[in-house]
Predict the structure.
Amino acid sequence: MSNFVYLSRERLNELEEELKELKTNGRKRMAERIAEARSHGDLSENAEYDAAKDEQGMLELKINQMENMLARARVVDPKSLSNDEVHILAKVTVKNVNNNKTYTYTLVSPEEADIKQSKIAVTSPVGASLMGKKKGEIVAAKVPAGVIKFEILDIE
């Protein structure tokens, strides 16, 4: 897997807006908190000031991480990709061969993975086992609980 982060146009726009918010209003709110804490006197014994400075460090770290991710971002239009095989941003319906349960996942970059939204990373055991496969194929994913076999029912 390359060092690129593959995103849909919509997700890229969301991240750019979030970054803009953090860099403007987030930094402004943080500066106000630090100024307020500083006004409480002796900085060497001011826990509120220390907490605000720690939060500022976390904010700057998040900004830096988002800038780094956006610098590596590549926009992928899922409509331009073939449904013949599983690829990033594909919506894949699979059946667990062991228990006959059906699941639908969208394969995304690790930065976008969110199991609650059924978005799994292409680098995860299940995601990696599905990549490049075709409808009807049975794949084996080595997960912490053992090996799970999936039959690919549909690719969108």
Remarks:
- The two ends are 22 Å apart (CA to CA).
